[in-house]
Amino acid sequence: MSEVDRSRIEMLREEAERHRANLAEMQQRLSELSATAVSPRKEVSVTVGNQGVIKDLHFPTSAYRKLPKKELAELITNTIAEAREKATAEIAGMVAPNLPAGIDAKAMVNGDISAEALVPGESRMPQVFEELRRRRAEIIERGPAR
After folding, report:
1. Residue 52: inside a domain, yes or no?
2. How many domains would you assign to the chain?
């Protein structure tokens, strides 16, 4: 293997390590993520975790007591939806830099994109790996050395 190939492989190894570190950091940030929404007149506050599960729901003021039950229920439901939307937007913002160009991160997080859309049409394999793959195929085609 030439020195150029060794240098390229080392460069790719370093790049892979950076990607691994970035993904580990993103995973940590995702596990700690929460989002809070407060109703317009501050009757209710809702905090959700990274999967949209309610972590906290409280009433910052006593204004909720004046609302009819149906209106209060709708207000709580809307505030939960807003908190979940904020969480989804934060998650999309975190994963977007790691997605192929042209992929809508929010649509992916919402499950609105098929797995096929994430697979590139052409190989994204770095050129050095393509070259090594080609050389290996040539060696296999020639058969074992005699």
Report:
1. yes
2. 1
Domain that includes residue 93, residue range? 33-99
- CA dihedral over 47, 50, 54, 55, signed as positive or negative: negative
Q: Is 92 exposed, middle or buried (0-12, 13-18, 19+ CB in 10 A)?
A: middle
Whether 121 is covered by a domain: the verdict is: no
We report the CATH number of the domain holding residue 65 as 3.30.1310.10
Q: Which pLDDT tens digits describe the chain residue by residue (146 residues)?
A: 678 788 888 888 898 888 888 888 989 999 999 999 999 999 999 999 999 999 999 999 999 999 999 999 999 999 999 999 999 999 999 988 878 778 888 888 888 887 677 766 555 556 667 777 788 888 888 776 55
- Report the predicted TM-score, pTM, of the whole model to 2 decimal places: 0.69
The rounded distance, in Å, linking the Cα atoms of 51 and 72 is: 24
- By residue count, the chain amounts to 146
The rounded distance, in Å, linking the Cα atoms of 95 and 108 is 9
Q: Is residue 25 part of a domain?
A: no
In a domain, 9, yes or no: no
